[in-house]
Amino acid sequence: MIFVSSEALPRVIQKLEERMLREVYAFSLDVEDFYYNIPHKELFCVLRVNKVDDYGDISFRGVTGVNSDDFLELLNLHLHPTVVNFDDKHYAQRSGICNWFFSCPFLSDLFFLCL
To answer: Does 1 have pLDDT greater than 60?
Structure first.
């Protein structure tokens, strides 16, 4: 297994493209702290533009039981609850998705499929 920093990734992709012209390889990529690095602002933009607005607010309410703005607000609350108390100080997660949330795989799939 080879670990590559994000700065080196373009060079790795270039090397793979050069070699792919000659031979076929199988490989997989793993993003370190994947869920924690999904930006909330862009995630909500993707959800609003590509998914929620596809239904329209009335259709979305019929399918989910809540209107689209309320759904996105609930999701926003869901993504921000991680608070840890350490040495009498509170620390809150400010970005990404906490990886123990049931919605992580679903939200990350939507995020990357719609980019």
So the answer is: no
Residues pairing with 86 in the sheet: 89
Question: Could you write out the DSSP letters of every residue in 12-40?
Answer: HHHHHHHHHTT---------TTTGGGS-H
CA distance 35 to 107: 9
List, in order, residues 6 or more apart from 11 with CB less than 8 Å away. none
Asked whether 92 and 82 are in contact (CB, 8 A), the reply is: yes
Domain locations along the chain: 36-113
37 closest CA partner among 97, 115, 111: 97
pTM over 0.70: no
Q: Which of 66, 40, 35 is nearest to 52 (CA)?
A: 66
Which of 7-16, 21-30, 67-76, 93-102 has the largest mean confidence? 67-76
Output the pLDDT for position 62.
Answer: 78
